[in-house]
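Protein folding task:
====================
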Amino acid sequence: MSIKSTVLGFPRMGSDRQLKKLVEKFWAGKATEQELVEGSKQLRADHWALQKQHGLTEVPAGDFSYYDHVLDAAFAVGIIPERYQQLDTAGTQAYFAMARGLQNKSIGIDVPSLEMKKWFDTNYHFMVPEVADNQKFVLHSTKVVDEFKEARALGYTARPVVLGPVSLLALSKTAKGSSTKPLEQLASLVPVYVELLGQLAAAGAEWVQMDEPVLALDLDAAVYKAAFEQAYSEFAKIDGLKYLLTSYFNRLGENLAWAATLPVHGIHLDLVRGSDDLDTALATIPEDKIISAGLINGRNIWKANLGQQLAVLNKIISARTPGRVWVSSSCSLLHSPHSLQPEVGHLDEETLGWLSFAEEKVEEVATLAAAAADPTTVQAKLQVNAANVASRKSSERITRPAVQQRLAALDRSFYTRKAPFTERQTLQRAALKLPLFPTTTIGSFPQTAEVRKARAQFRKGALAEAEYTEYLEAETRKCIEWQDQIGLDVLVHGEFERTDMVEFFGENLEGFVFTKKGWVQSYGSRCVKPPVIFGDVSRPKAMTVDVAKFAQSCSANKPVKGMLTGPVTILKWSFVRDDQPLSQTAGQIALAIRDE
């Protein structure tokens, strides 16, 4: 028995953020468009080779993007707002203007970017397409066809990845000055998708991954069922193509009943966040349809419990016709760092054994598929995985009884303020003596090149701690004095000692570790390196008190705010442990911040 192993997408940036560096070099005029094209082509080839090397039987093609996959999808079907039409739409000028805006006085161009929005509940951000009344849809770019051909030419079995038309329009917004809802123009968009899919069929594609993530939302069934039927009944007429209807980030829920009836050949299930769907899916999805089992978490960084997930996979296999089950990631691996290799020697061996980044997740997918066919072929891998999973469960570094007992001891009275707002307001006004409409800023001031240079020198040991502290205090004093001079009422210290509003606190709290190159894409070329919350969180010492005291000493007659990142932001901007409820981890962080 052979089981197809694949992933829904792979990180674009590269093991050392090569794409970020290449794109930014191009923006700065230090690389040509041809160099951008060729460098990106090499990066795709490297990523396909890596996936094949780790055992995948099919690789995704078309998941790569210079900036954002939603922008790519909009650009491909001609959703290019009028303000960008004066630019070069054949090359990258209009594309990057939609992504970043473009200001160039020499050619009289000043256009803002599209709006940016969070991609569902992830920390990735997408560009929001703008659909005008009577939008003219045309096949403007064949990027996904070209990348599929690239993969085929290199000898890979590839599956094109296409953002489906219903999700594309549902995620779009009505252009300024227009009134038609984007989804109401689906009938005009479908023929362009038919043309694109026809080109994929002509290029030799057998399967197309149709990403329709809106299926994981609470939808108006009457509206969306009709929309999906309208689009996919047309796609079904294209000879030779099979469609994997793909959704992620949640269970399909009530949408599953009608999604299962669509004229597609397979349905992907996110069985990490949507595991509650499985029994219903097995009973609802017709026997002649493939089930793509998303068993490896694409959004977190913990090793999968392969024994546990293998049991789920075997349950699916036993309920289906042989050959009609695939193994995959729950979602694209876009949301995971690239590889654990740079962390060897940086993180301790125990922690390394608990983690799995994109490269390791590819291997986990391949291992599951092999184990379902014949467990003896991967017995050693399964044993190592079981030992790592057991280590994480039993490690004394994970659980701190005092932290758990403190949180458990809180009663309802702890969540109620001791004085009503009106009383607190009166006391605050008397103590602070602020004007009726006090002025202030949110917090951090620009991290200048000089500040970054001083921090780098300190970290390399070229600047002594006393010298670095003296430098930071001088910057803080200048910041306080400047705010006082321009007339602000409540001052801030500027946060020159902090690299990041979450990283700073993570570095000073127990229960966190930090990777060396655990970068993930936030938007465009912007990458972040989230802290990893591996155990119970506590505050062993004061984090900001000394800096706050010094800052206040710089102002004799105006208050200086203490600057603390809230517990939910710390939680949401980190890779969070998955062995206890989020509420418990959030409560531990909240107590630590409360102590500060």
Observations:
- The chain has a mean pLDDT of 96.
- Residues 12 and 64 are 6 Å apart (CA to CA).
- The longest strand covers residues 290-296.
- The longest helix spans residues 465-486.
